[in-house]
Amino acid sequence: MKKNLFIYAIGALVGLTGFTGCQDMFDIDSDQVINTDDYSLDAPTDSVYSVMGIIHSMQRIADRTILFGELRGELAQLTTSANLDLQALANFTADVENAYNKPQDYYHVIQNCNYFLANVDTALKKRNQPVFIKEFAAVKAFRAWTYLQLAQVYGSVPFITEPINVEKQADPSKYEKKDIQALCDYFIEDLKPFIDTELPGYGSIGGYNSSYFYIPVRLLLGDMCLWTGRYKEAATYYHDYLTHVDAPRPLGTSAVEWYDAMREFDSYSDSWSGVFQSYSGSEHLVIIPMESNKFEGIVSDLVNVFNSTQDNQYYFQATISPAYRELSRQQQNCKVFTYTVDNIIRKDTLYAPAENPWSDDAVGDLRLFSMYTKGTISSPSSSNYSKEYQQISKFGRHVPLYRKTLVYLRYAEAMNRAGFPTTAFSVLKYGLNKDNISLYVDTNEVKAAAGTNLLTWDERYFTVDNTIGIHSRGAGNSAANAFYVIPSLASLNDTINYVENLICDELALESAFEGFRFYDLMRLAMRKEDNAFLATKIAGRKGASQFDQALYNKLLIRDNWFLPLKRE
Question: Taking each helix axis from N to C terminus, what angle separates 404-417 and 492-511, rounded to the nearest 10 degrees?
Answer without folding.
Answer: 170
